[in-house]
Predict the 3D structure of the following.
Amino acid sequence: KAGVTQTPRYLIKTRGQQVTLSCSPISGHRSVSWYQQTPGQGLQFLFEYFSETQRNKGNFPGRFSGRQFSNSRSEMNVSTLELGDSALYLCASSLDVGGQPQHFGDGTRLSIL
Amino acid sequence: QKEVEQDPGPLSVPEGAIVSLNCTYSNSAFQYFMWYRQYSRKGPELLMYTYSSGNKEDGRFTAQVDKSSKYISLFIRDSQPSDSATYLCAQGLGANSKLTFGKGITLSVRP
């Protein structure tokens, strides 16, 4: 069974640009959550999507947004990139909303120049 | 007080040692407790998952949860160089998928 797939693996952007990251959950999993991982803050929850609706949101500015498609695939968008947005962005999937445990992909490493 | 505190490390042990990793948490509403292992340039990999207080064993790994003390532990027996990684504790509430993570501890097992 394929795991959580995230694309691209690496991205380099400049300040002010925007970026879209993609996540395909484990087959049959309908809930997708996004996390940001940095050396200083560790892993922090961004948001959760289920049935194409955002179900839960962390403490991040509105520049961070996402969506989910009918096949449960999800995208995350960050607009007006700042240097502090450099991080590993991780996607996790679970069977149902609020479901545990979650399984993570290998992430997208975003670097802002 | 942070919601989850984890020993900062790093931790270096010889091969074959017993390793004890610990986390404390402040939110008594947490119901789910997990340990993830993360290798360099990879995502967190689920190691152990438990819903209640007590012990759970899987091979060389034992997870221990004490809800009354708000304390969780992961024990690794007969540690191997392949266990060298960052270990993250995580806690979850029942109503949503948000996980709250410790900062992680980097373990190095010397051959």
Q: What stands out?
A: The mean pLDDT of chain B is 92.
